[in-house]
Design a protein that fits this description.
With 382 residues, this protein is an alpha+beta fold. It is 31% helix and 27% strand. The protein folds into 3 domains: 71 residues, no CATH class; 137 residues, Alpha-Beta Plaits, CATH 3.30.70.141; 142 residues, Nucleoside diphosphate kinase-like domain (Alpha-Beta Plaits), CATH 3.30.70.141. It contains 15 helices and 16 strands. InterPro entries: DM10_dom, NDK-like_dom, NDK-like_dom_sf, NDPk7B, Nucleoside_diP_kinase.
Length: 382
Amino acid sequence: MVYDYFDKYTFLCEMYDEDADKIIELVLHYFPFDNSCQVIDANKGKNLVKRVQLPTLKLEMLEIGNIVNVFSKLLLITDCAPATRKTLFYKFESTFALIKPVPADLHGKIITFITKNGFRIVRMKNGKITKEGALALYNHIAGSSMLPIIVDYVTSGEVIGLELVGRNAIKRWRRYLGATNPAEAEPGTLRSLYGENTLRNIAHGCTTTEDVNDMLELFFGYEHGHIPRVPFRATFENCTCCVIKPHAVLEGSVGAILEQITTSGNFHITAMAMFSVTLSNAAEFYEVYKGVLPEYELMSIHLAEGKCVALEIKSSNPEDNCVCEFRKLCGPRDPDLCRQLYPKSIRALYGTTLVHNAVHCTDLPEDGVSEVEYFFKLLAND
């Protein structure tokens, strides 16, 4: 699309004002012509930020529910103007995807396939579904002789549930899945690439909005306000924590990072989930670095800028110190140094700066369990 100087997209935002101890409403104008923005205090009718170029702000960051960083001011996007909605989010919708029990080394490939085909992942976690959940998932074939076999299969191991957002997401996800029988699926579809047979056909997709809403509630919902319907898989034993940072999520690197971990031969992922972290939570999580790393404040801001993916990771060899061994796979904090010394490390491949260095990994052996608990106990029930 070709833009002129005055073309803009308009978003309604909220920002916490620490001095006044209140939430203030703001209007964010984004000008794609020169990647500039303007922030206006809606109540006072004054510019908080005059139109200025901001190279770090990208159009793909401007999604409702995202947090954007405008000169260290964190703005939560709550809505957008009708004209912006019509242009950017026309026919956008959510769908539910379930990755069935498959070898762990396929998880990364499947997630990369999803993001490369234009879907945005807004919720994700691994888990095991119950027989009741499986029956709800396949209620459209109730009475079929295949139903008991399918239910046994999808409840036999770990699955990954995802909420995908995109234009005509329900129909498009089913099209990219391919035919139920992988042998009949069109070339390039997910099932043609990785499916084995009609039963082991990689993933599931919903057909209606009602099915999507029901499955999202079943997989990501809570009972009695705080008990997840599908429990998180963290064990909190002999583990380390890895957090895939917001910039890596936005850049579509989650699948590649997962694949690098699971195909290393040294580690397996026992729990994964996508989180939105507040600035205060990010600062608390990184508190061990306060006064130690000059990037502490910027690290905290970045972790709160968008969605991240937290992982509990264990070593394949129980004799290994998991925290120390996994840190080697990640590489040093500085991606430039990584590229010189450890070019195949995660940070060398997917990091760009000391703050945008792809992943956080536990540094101190005694902190592995506590960092996993921070996400899968504290934030998961927040």
